[in-house]
Amino acid sequence: MTKILLKGATLVNEGREFIGDVLIDGKRISKIAPSISVDGSVKEINCEGLHLLPGCIDDQVHFREPGLTHKANIQSESRAAVAGGITSFMEMPNTVPNTLTQELLEAKYLRAAEVSPANYSFFMGASNDNYDEVMKTNIQDVCGVKIFMGSSTGNMLVDNTNTLEHLFANVPMLIATHCEDETTIRKNLEEYKEKYGEAIPMSAHPLIRSAEACYLSSSKAVELAKKNNTRLHILHISTGIETELFRNDIPLEQKRITAEACIHHLWFSDADYESKGTWIKWNPAVKTAADRDQIWKALLDNRIDVIATDHAPHTIEEKQQPYLQAPSGGPLVQHALLAMLDASANGKIPLVRVVEKMAHAVAVCFQVKDRGFLREGYFADLVLVDLNKKSTVTKDSLLYQCGWSPFEGTTFSSSVEKTFVNGVLVYENGKLTGEKGGERMLFNR
């Protein structure tokens, strides 16, 4: 296998930026040094003027396969992910059928092995009545167990108190939760139906799926986790008040309770509903600019540990429906890193912290084996970005099967130039190479 030598890039890794060379030998990084010379067969790539980052790890995506492939599939969305510098993803279980058995879970892995250019892992789903199946989950080759404590489809809402207690007390691996209190949401929705009938405005979304609903559920999850010493990870924090639930006085490696912020809650606010409408309808809802500011503060002071996308595509026709019918969710994996690089260029977050929150911390949080860092011996999951080359989001440039993006028309200050997955060049100069580098992620547990 030909070695690849990346020459003269600015490496961004573990709190440092420095110019150096990286030698890829097969699937792994074999050497990192200020200057590397190689005897024999080597493909040399001049990276001067480019920044080399560890590939991003997205701990929350919905790729819609099986059962919802009119919206998206593992192949289409993983291709969009690598085009955006995301080299590894963790996918959620609310597909059709719901991923509630080990057989259905393994079928997803088999499919990804066939088609995914990105590395992959899939959450095992919990319900009110599949405890025995959940407990069969292999802690070394599955990223975690997902519990919907609100806002789910099919049979995945876990609202039985005894079941929650049992899961939090006994699951031996990371539990990831969606936290919104359904009772509060249903009450709010009925009030808005009485006021507006079927014509509820989009601006009501963050009031129906309110900060109170989020906090009630998140605080309950934290309480259960503290009681049972559960390894809890709360997804997509959307309110300022929730950030008060988390701590930053110990290293991430020692935390038993961690939290995630998503791109849309860092980028948009309720002021954007007027122009974006259902394009930015997510659960939990995008809330106020004050909430957004508090999420940013918690991200920067390490109460919030990682950045993800909650990539959840729907068709244009589905999203164009009125508020009550339009589903929540949107596509983000192709532009998440670019959005954060923009935030860095605008002084919102240092570049090294972008890498920390989108790669290093995710690897630490989930105990990912040999990924998430530029280190000798680690897998060569790498992304080369040009911080001085603008890129505009056009419909023609989208790789999402759904064919739309809430970022359409946005010009980002940076561009993704090349993406490597396990040493395989899967994306370069605006095009997929057609190579499939993705592998099943493993975990040091």
UniProtKB/TrEMBL annotation:
Segments forming a coiled coil: none
Protein EC: 3.5.2.3
GO annotation, cellular component aspect: cytoplasm
PROSITE patterns per record: DIHYDROOROTASE_2
Gene Ontology MF: a single term: allantoinase activity
One Pfam family, short name: Amidohydro_1
Biological process terms in GO annotation: purine nucleobase catabolic process
Broadest EC class assigned to this enzyme: hydrolase
UniProt cross-references to Gene3D superfamilies, sorted A to Z: Metal-dependent hydrolases, Urease, subunit C, domain 1
Domain Amidohydrolase-related: 52-426
Keyword terms of this UniProt record: Hydrolase, Metal-binding
Cofactor dependence: Zn(2+)
Protein role: Catalyzes the reversible cyclization of carbamoyl aspartate to dihydroorotate.
Family, similarity comment: Belongs to the metallo-dependent hydrolases superfamily. DHOase family. Class I DHOase subfamily.
Protein name in the entry: Dihydroorotase
Lineage: Bacteria, Pseudomonadati, Bacteroidota, Flavobacteriia, Flavobacteriales
